[in-house]
Amino acid sequence: MTIIQAIIIAIVEGLTEFLPVSSTGHMILTSSILGVENDAFLKTFEISIQLGAILAIVIMYIKRFFKSFEIYKKLIAAFIPTALIGFLAYGFIKEYLFNPLIVAVSLIVGGIILILINRRMVSQVSEYKEVEDVPLKNAFFIGLIQCLSMIPGVSRAAATIVGGTFNGFNKKQAMEFSFLLAVPTMAAATGYDLLKTPVVFTHNEIFLLIVGLVTAFIVAWIAVKAFLAFVEKHGFAFFGWYRIAIGVLYLMLVH
Description:
mainly alpha, 12 helices, globular
């Protein structure tokens, strides 16, 4: 992997991590198009640079994390199913699901679902005054839906936002919960992957990881602010059509 390839992949990660379009899927397709060797370092790089995006959310929502201890109970409840299923299925997911064909199909299917339920998501009236008011069982169910995003191309953000709106959140609260839940979910996924991957990084690979982390952080910060403003005006249908277009184009032109 060259530094230019690393920067491009990290830009894609930062742009897509918190959008309902699947950052992992986009990175897999991007690395395939760029001709980057699909080795252990690439897979670890694609997961590890998500820490840059996580840091952007932590800083942006730092006050939110100290507002109420109650939010931690709900985040833990939502994180439990992801942790359990992720631990049990880690080997299978990384061995068999990290490929462009699965990503393209998942993008298309997820895009259709976003378009079909967009009106419900946009018009949803919240059942709760604050995000932390969601019952533990509802938070747990959102976590179960998040597990679908272990399939590359599904999108963790899309899964949790959809799960949130179907569990009483309005679109703003669903996006906020998705952002907050990303912190433990992505941190755990990255940490576990680094522990499980038998890679001894070279000095060049460490440099590429640092470049990727910094790039993803900067781009994610900008992307989240733009995403919130866009959804407020236009909803989620655009992202559905975008997902379908990217998936179909990849199948037609590349695969």
